[in-house]
Amino acid sequence: MTTILSIQSSVAYGHVGNSAATFPLMRLGVNVWPVLTVHFSNNTSYPSKRGPLLAPSDVADVVQGIDELGVLPQVDFFLTGYQGAPAMGAEILRIVELVKQHNPQAVWCCDPVMGDVGRGHVRLGGHP
Length: 128
Fold this sequence. Notes:
Blueprint: E1 3-11, H1 17-27, E2 31-40, H2 56-68, E3 77-80, H3 86-102, E4 107-110
Parallel strand pairs: 1-2, 1-3, 3-4
Helix pairs in contact: 2-3
């Protein structure tokens, strides 16, 4: 069975991040281990949102728990999406290295999630 470690957002209302990816992948027979970077009321394209931005140490703690189970060698793919804050990027890179230590053939699928400025707007290099 294919196994994906999916480190990305979760929302209560709507379908993005792990809220969108987990169920369809499981229906396809994929084993998905969702790890949350944020748990918001809704995605950030709405005028407001509520909910916690998880700390990189929280994500590290969850992944450490998975590692302690001895199952990280089973990870075939790791999927990363909305990170919530720049500090999460360094933790994601550490987790990528950890997974690769256990399974050098694991493939990283990175969704950079750049449309976070406003509905339909993308900011690259400081330009609106």
